[in-house]
Amino acid sequence: MIYVLYSLAIVVPVLLLVFISKKIARRRKNPLTPFRRFTVKTKHARRYVIGKDLAVQTIPWEEPNRADTPPLHIGGSGERFSTLTGVWWLDDQRLVVNHRSGLRLALFDLSQDNPKIGAAEIGHLTDNIAALRLFENEWEIAVAGCWASAYSLFIMHDKPGDASSVTFTLKETCAHKSKDFSHGVSYDSEDRLCLAFHTGENPRIEIGKAVYKLPAPWGARDLCFDPLTNCHYAVAVSTNPRRSSYKDVMTTIWALQKDAAEWYILCGLENVHSDTCDVYRGRVWIPDQAGDRALGVNIQTGAVEIILTGESFDFPHGLSVSKGGKLAIVNYGSSAMNIIDIGNI
């Protein structure tokens, strides 16, 4: 018996050391490990439930799955189809939205009883969307082209209040330079088209003619520009959605100061999957598909200051904030858009 005890006294510590060594080795091999020191907590954030603490307007937009897209999974929250994928405000009443699986682009006017007042066909799958005003009643609309193209540009003409005046004309579809996935589009204060290629042969960020790369494993999903700080911000994720669920998901937010050569990491968010971003009053706003919520992150400290939750969030993908403080979020799960006033929070 005493020999058994002596054996256990030797074997158990050895096995424990082996277990600990393997665990440390796995962490060292994990590409996320160097970035976990930037992780921020959410326990001190102010929380609001939309529909209870904040009013919400919900606008559905259903289209058939013309692209025959399969369901995907985010974290452990189940499957979803890619329906409403991008949104961009033109002013405090009008916004453009794209329907990924429906292969459509539409203009919405919240002042109208029937807010969808114009639509156009898109010849390929899309992700995020952006708009640039060219003249009083003329806009350039950019949509990210996924694997099919870098982007497509449409020219939209409209007269506010006149639904019959809305027209969309395809201007160009720009082919990929390499086999990449184009996910994010935006415009900055210099009217430059900004692109985020999150995976493929050459993941990168393009701002006009300038090209940037984030360190692995980060692929930029989208970017936005803050005219108050003259900084670009980008949201990146560590893992891409799959047909089967994945668990080890992390989102990072990055910043590029004016005339800087490299992006720096602002914060890391564990168990968050975000596909787009926008800036409003000192916060980067992002949706979180893993948690069915939206987060407001301080652009100076990286702290999560605001968390919005509610039953209206259902795999939130696209997000945009108007100059007047209206937050628009489009949801994959419900194929609907949420409008929330965040001007006073």
> Which percent range fits the helix content?
under 10%
**Strand fraction band?**
over 45%
**How many separate domains make up the residues?**
1
Could you say which structural class the secondary elements and strand pairing correspond to? mainly beta
Number of DSSP strands?
A: 27
The low-confidence parts are 18-29
In words, what does this structure look like?
It is built from 1 helix and 27 strands. With 345 residues, it is mostly beta strands. It has one domain (33-341): Neuraminidase (6 Propeller), CATH 2.120.10.30. The strands form 7 sheets. The protein has a 5-stranded mixed β-sheet, with no helix packed on it. Strand 23 (293-298) and strand 24 (304-309) form a beta hairpin. The longest helix is centred in the N-terminal third of the chain and has 28 residues, at 2-29. Residues 18-29 have low confidence and may be disordered.
What layout of secondary structure does this protein have?
Blueprint: H1 2-29, E1 46-49, E2 56-60, E3 72-73, E4 79-80, E5 84-89, E6 94-99, E7 104-109, E8 116-121, E9 129-135, E10 138-144, E11 151-159, E12 162-174, E13 180-187, E14 193-200, E15 204-207, E16 210-212, E17 219-226, E18 231-237, E19 250-256, E20 264-270, E21 278-280, E22 283-288, E23 293-298, E24 304-309, E25 316-321, E26 326-331, E27 336-341
